[in-house]
Each structure stands twice: as C-alpha cells, then as structure tokens.
Amino acid sequence: MTDLRIRRWIFLGLAVIVVLTMLVPVTTKVTVSPYTQRMYDYIDSLPAHSVVMVSFDHDASSQPEIRPLSLCLLRHAFSRGLKMAGVSFQSEGTVIGYRMIEQTAKEFGREYGVDYVYLGFRPQLQAAILQLGESIRGLYAQDYFGTPLDSIPMLVGIDSLAQIAVVLSIADANNTTHWMEYGKARFNVPIIAGVTASMVTSYDPYLSSGQLSAMVGGLRGAAEYERLLNRHGAGQRGMLAQSATHLYLIALILTGNFIFLRARRGKK
Amino acid sequence: MDWGTLVAGLLTFAVFSFLYRDNPAYKWAESLLIGVSIGYTLVIAWTSTVSAMIIDPLSSGRWGVIVPLAVGLMLFGRFFPQTRSWSRIPIAVIIGSGAGAAIPAMLDARILNQMSPTVAPLWGNGLVASFGAIVLLSGVLSTLAYFYFSRERTGWFGAVASTGTWFLMIFFGTTFGYTVMSRVSTFIGRMEFVLGDFLHIIHQ
Amino acid sequence: MFLQYFSPHPLARAVNRGMLDYWQILSAIALVVGVVGVARTNLMGLIAGKDRINRLTVLAGVMAMPILAWLWGTTAGSPFVWMFEYVQMPMQATVFALLAFFVASASFRGFRARNAQATVLLVSATIILMSRLSFGEGFLSQFQWIGDWMRDNPSMAARRAILIGIGLGSLTTSLRVLLGVERTWLGGSK
Known about the structure:
The complex is a heterotrimer. By secondary structure, chain A is α/β, with parallel strands linked by helices. Chain A has helices at 3-23, 34-45, 63-79, 91-107, 125-134, 136-139, 175-187, 200-209, 218-229, 234-237, 239-267; strands at residues 51-57, 83-88, 116-121, 166-171, 191-195, 214-217. Chain A has one domain (30-250): Rossmann fold. In chain A, strands 3-2-1-4-5-6 form a six-stranded parallel beta sheet, sandwiched between helices. In chain A, strand 5, helix 8 and strand 6 (214-217) form a beta-alpha-beta unit. In chain A, helix 5 (125-134) packs parallel to helix 7 (175-187). Chain A is elongated. Chain B has a domain at 122-204. The longest helix of chain B has 44 residues, at 155-198. The two termini of chain B are 15 Å apart. Chain C is 77% helix and 0% strand. By secondary structure, chain C is mostly helical. Chain C is extended, with a radius of gyration of 26 Å.
C-alpha cells in the first residue's frame, strides 16, 4: 500500500472515530484534577465586586478548544458577582472577547458599564501591560464603543493594575508569559490562566513557582470545570470522542512501532 | 439554517477537502481567509490604535503624537529602494524598547523566580515529596548542563549532560501528549459545529 | 525602558509613559505597513497575471473588511462581525483542526522507538495520553496520577531549565542589542 493511501486510511479512521463517538449520547465521567480544583477555589475565594481583568490573548484558530473553557471561567466569575474588564492584545481576540463577555454577561443579567466593560485591543503586549500598571486611562482613554472611561461607573476609582484583583489570561501561546514577566514581576498583580492543552507544559514551571496562581488547560480542563459548575457543556460532550481518539492514536503508535521493530529484526 | 451557518459550513468543508488532496476549492478558501484576516487586522489596528492614539489626540490639539507618527511613517520607506534605510529608525525604537524592558523582566521572571523554587528542602516533607524534589533538582541541573556547549562532554560532566537528555525526552513526550490532546480537541470542536449547527444530526 | 525600574521621579515616569506610547504607536503603524505590503505583493502578482482568481480574492477580502466596518461599524450584528464569525473564524479553526490528522499520521509513520531515548519519549507520550482518558475512576486513575507526577517533576524540571536558559540568552541578547554589538536586526553588519 502506498504512503498516500495509508495516510488517507489513517485520516478516515480518525474522522470515523470522532463522528461515531459524537453521535453516541453518552457523557463520560471526568475526575477533577487538582489544577482545575485550584482554579475553581481561587475564583471562589475572590470577594464579590472584585474587578477581574480578562485578557483575551488568543486567536480564532484555537477557538473550538478554548471557547468551552473561557465560557466556564466567565460564567463562574459572573456567578460570584465579580466585575469583568475585558481587554485584548491580539487583534483576533478583540471580537472574540467582546462576543464572549457579552454572551455570558447576558446569561446572568449583568449590565454593561456597571458589571462589565470591554476596553478592546491595543498592540504590543509588553508596552500595554507596562502602561496598564501605571494608568489604565493612559492606555485606554475610551472603551471599545468610544465611551470615555471616566463616565463608566464600574471604573470609578480603578486606574491601574493595583486596583485589579486578578488578571485572567485566556491564551493559546506565550502571551500569558508576558503577563507574568511584566504584570506580576513589576506590579505584583496575581495572574490566573486558561490555556490550550499544548501550552500546559510550558506554563507548569510558573504554576509551581507561584508566578501563576492557577491554571486550567484544554477541553479536558473545561470538562472538569463544567463538572464543578454542575453544568453540561461542550467540554463534557467532547470527552468520549477525545478518549476514543487517544486510544486510536496509542494504537497507531504501537502498530507503527510493531511494524518497524519487526522489519528491523528481519534485516538483522 | 441561517446564511452565516451555511457559509461557515461550506467553507469548513472546503478546507477539510485538503485532507484528500490539494484542490482549487481549498486554495480559494485559503485566499479568502488570508484576505479577510488581513482586512480584519487592518480595521482593528486602525480603530483601536491609529484612530484612538493618533487621530483623536491630534484632533483635540495634543500635538505630541506628531513625533511618533513621523517616526512611524518612516516604516513605509521600506517600499522604495531610495528610502529603505529610513525604516531602520522606527525598527530601532521598537527593538530597543523591547530589549530594555526585557532585561529586568527576564531576570526576575525567568531566572530568579525559577531558580528559587528549585532550591527547596530535599527531605522532611514525606517520601514522595522528597523523591519529587530530588528528581526536580537533578533534572534542572542536568538539563542546564546539557545546554552548556562551552565544555567538552567527557567525564562527570558528560554523564550529567547525558542525564539531561533523558529529562528532555520525558518533557518532549509529555508535551507531545498534551499537544495531541489540543489538536484533537480543535477537530472535535469543528465536528460539533458540522454535526450540530450545520447538519443538525446531533442536538446540543 | 530599562532605567524606568530604578526611578520613581515624576520626570522618569513621564518619560516612561511617553516611550510606552511611542512603542505602541510604532507597532500599530507597523501592522498597517504589513497589510500594505501584502496588498502590494498580491496586486503586483495580479498585474503579472499569476494565479489571478486567488490574488483577486485576497485583495477583495482586504478591501471588503474596512469598507464594511466604515459603513456599518464593528459592533455585534454588523456585517464586519458577521464576516469574522462566519468566514474567518470557521476557516481559521478548521485549518488548525487539520493538524489533528497530521498528528495521527505522524503517530503511525514518524514515532519510532529507534533507540532508548526515543522509547522514553514514546512511553511518556503514551502515559500522558492514557492519563487523559475519561472513562471514570479505577484502573485508569493510576495513569492519571503517574501522568500528573511526570508533569510536575521530570517534565517540569526540563522545562524550567529551558526557561532559565532562554532567560539567560534573552538577557545577553538584549544587552548586546543595547550596546550595539548585536546588529542582525538591521539586516546586515552596517
């Protein structure tokens, strides 16, 4: 069988497994990991009316994976009565963040300007964080809709990272690192993160050293968080498909190596 | 089904068609993606920054932004051979600012704050914690030794550096596992859209 | 930018804020320059007659988004946001989703236990994949514990060392840039 035909069979196998497992209306039980529990406990411990700055530091390519997690974190924060200030330092995150914060705010009947605000995009993340630490109004004279910050009730008395209870960075790349390097290191603002699974091992050292106060990763993290929130969502729905796919990939690794080792033994 | 879902679904299939082979539908969809995303970035950059940080201050009489505006416009010099060297000035400002801000950030976040938790008690917190602390310390030191190329890898140093290789293999394997999970999750998310919102086969 | 960490004097703070504004304004203009560059390349390709339909599509997209934003704004429900949510976002996510297939293909064809170290890599990856299964507790919870331990100890040790190494490298490169020793960003040695 040619390489191309083998590849196409592998692709077909993956597609069939995902489609079939998604058609099965079964929700598998996920065990909540200590990492997810830590994030949940952290948000739960924040006093009501604390201002959380949510930084949408990801782009559209990671949306299918990170959206369920973002929704969980925003819903938990709104349910605790926390006030959300949305920002974005990645251009695509601008509209994504705006729609997400608006959607979750509506679910909880929150009012714009009183319970949440969306400030929009600024380029050059490092400069933006350093400016936020000095003066939020120095970076954002107006919100995303052109309203001067001084006329937004929620931001009365809030003008730097010193008045922010925590920064929640929702990221699919290294942007959270900049929050820790500039926000945490310079201004000592606590950072928590919701990241894609591929970034989890990159941020583990920061979590261990305390530079990151809490971190949840990927669709599995979303499924665990949904379990803590007692809410059925895309995270839990995807777990059967994800588990089946993992078994398929393990089978592929083992089969490929079995063929390889047999061929090597044959040559000897 | 609304028009948006129909368009999104058809474009999704156009991109998936690449899995069979490269084809005109995929190439066209890719071109559309490039064009729309560049146009989107232009709008966001303009409304969020150029308009908010340059045009609004100028129209309200704050002339201080003329200087960064003039320096920034030098970037357009790269499009003409006679003025190409002008673009080095704004690039120098960007790179210099980044380098200056990075020094204390790197020192604090990546070096000092990473070294201090590595220097932790190796016993006194139970057998499992002690074993973990020993593994952690030996892993950090041996991996650092692996990346030290100024010394020949012989004797005890060679043994330490090759130990670092094992830790790196475990790290790469762990990262691969999580990366696989990430990619699979993205595909599952797209299939949820295709099977749910587009084809209405599953109900959420 | 480096000295601002050492002085709380109002003048130093004012200079710092000014520099941060400069940095951002220049970055925003650099974004615009990048867009102009791409549009220029595609226009020149179009004039030369190469791959006309696709280049026209790129240019149409580049022009359509600003026109839509100018006419109808960028708030929820506007055509600009519609294009982002139903054209850009689905395609971008799907392009990324293709990687799942290539990872599957690589798992079969690329990941070979050629030597002891490659075997360790494969075993680690397999343990992590097993640890992320969600078929309830029991036998699989052992893999979860092993996977978490691997993540918190040997894997993190290597990552920490890499971070320290990157930190030291970035520090020296930044110093070299500031002292004028490093000039590769100029595109030459002049």
